[in-house]
């Protein structure tokens, strides 16, 4: 963690040594000319690490936490999701597979050397991506992944309700052809900019559009992967016994 904060100015051995002495750590950090607030954060890392360890120990001894772990062991949820990860990355690039799982393209990508796919129980939001210039870690929440069909109804219906409006459906069709910004969409549909912004906000709320900022302009495009997944979920729900 300290190596990350100092942007690899020190190695792990030196970082471990500095973490044992707050005065030495503070003296070392001050030489970089960081803002005082950042210095306070970095020099507080030993306390943060200690608190984190205490939290883990408290969780480990908590009855509710352990009952959830036992539940996962009994219903094989963890192993099932591991199998999905293994199958998904066997013949596909891990980055492409992660984008499919999250239902959206990643704008912030790199030529990662390592990829890790990890099922976790306690996570909010449902899925999360962590990365540096070498490694991408994809975290997938087990509980939401395993919800029964009836519990999934709201997550299936809400995005579909957003496209029950004819204007929003037209916007998605236009944005599927090529990215556009708000004024372009307004002109094409003969609508006011605030009206278009309202529709885009709703579509964005359900992840049905991608947003990319180029300088001061936001470009929107249809998130076809997310849209296709939602339509597949409808089919799956109808067919599931």
Task: Give the arrangement of secondary structure elements.
Elements: H1 2-5, H2 12-18, H3 22-30, H4 36-43, H5 45-60, H6 63-75, H7 77-90, H8 94-102, E1 114-120, E2 127-131, E3 135-141, H9 142-145, H10 153-162, H11 166-177, E4 180-181, H12 182-189, H13 193-205, E5 209-214, E6 217-222, H14 224-239
Helix pairs in contact: 10-14, 12-13
Outline:
The protein is globular, with a radius of gyration of 23 Å. The chain contains 14 helices and 6 strands. The termini are far apart.
Keywords:
241 residues, alpha+beta, Arc Repressor Mutant, subunit A, 3 domains, 3-stranded mixed beta sheet, 3-stranded antiparallel beta sheet, 59% helix, 14% strand, globular
- According to CATH, what is the class of the largest domain? Mainly Alpha
| C-alpha-based Rg, rounded | 23 Å
Could you name the CATH topology of the largest domain?
A: Arc Repressor Mutant, subunit A
The 3D shape can be described as globular
Residue share in β-strands:
5-15%
Count of extended strands = 6
Number of helices: 14
Low-confidence stretches: none
Going by CATH, the architecture of the largest domain would be Orthogonal Bundle
Share of residues in helices: 55-70%
Q: Calculate the terminal CA-CA distance, rounded to whole Å.
A: 48 Å
- Total domain count: 3
Structural class, by secondary structure, is alpha+beta
What does the largest sheet look like?
A: 3 strands, mixed
CATH superfamily placement of the largest domain: Winged helix-like DNA-binding domain superfamily/Winged helix DNA-binding domain
């Amino acid at each position: 963690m300290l190596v990350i904060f100092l942007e690899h100015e020190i190695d792990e051995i030196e970082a471990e040594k500095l973490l044992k002495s707050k005065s030495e750590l503070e003296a070392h950090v001050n030489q970089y000319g960081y803002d005082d607030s950042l210095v306070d954060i970095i020099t507080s890392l030993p306390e943060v690490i200690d608190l984190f360890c205490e939290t883990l120990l408290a969780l480990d001894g908590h009855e509710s936490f352990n009952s959830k772990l036992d539940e996962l062991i009994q219903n094989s949820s963890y192993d099932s999701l591991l199998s999905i990860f293994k199958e998904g990355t066997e013949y596909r690039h891990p980055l492409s597979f992660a984008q499919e799982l999250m239902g959206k393209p990643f704008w912030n990508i790199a030529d990662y050397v390592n990829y890790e796919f990890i099922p976790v129980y306690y996570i909010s939001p449902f899925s999360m991506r962590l990365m540096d210039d070498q490694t991408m870690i994809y975290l997938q929440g087990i509980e939401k992944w395993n919800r029964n069909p009836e519990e999934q109804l709201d997550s299936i219906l809400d995005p579909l309700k957003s496209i029950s409006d004819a204007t929003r459906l037209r916007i998605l069709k236009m944005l599927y052809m090529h990215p556009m910004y708000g004024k372009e969409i307004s002109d094409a549909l003969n609508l006011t900019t605030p009206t278009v912004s309202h529709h885009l906000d709703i579509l964005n709320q359900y992840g049905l559009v991608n947003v990319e900022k180029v300088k001061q302009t936001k470009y929107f495009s249809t998130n076809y992967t997310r849209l296709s997944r939602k339509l597949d979920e409808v089919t799956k729900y109808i067919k599931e016994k």
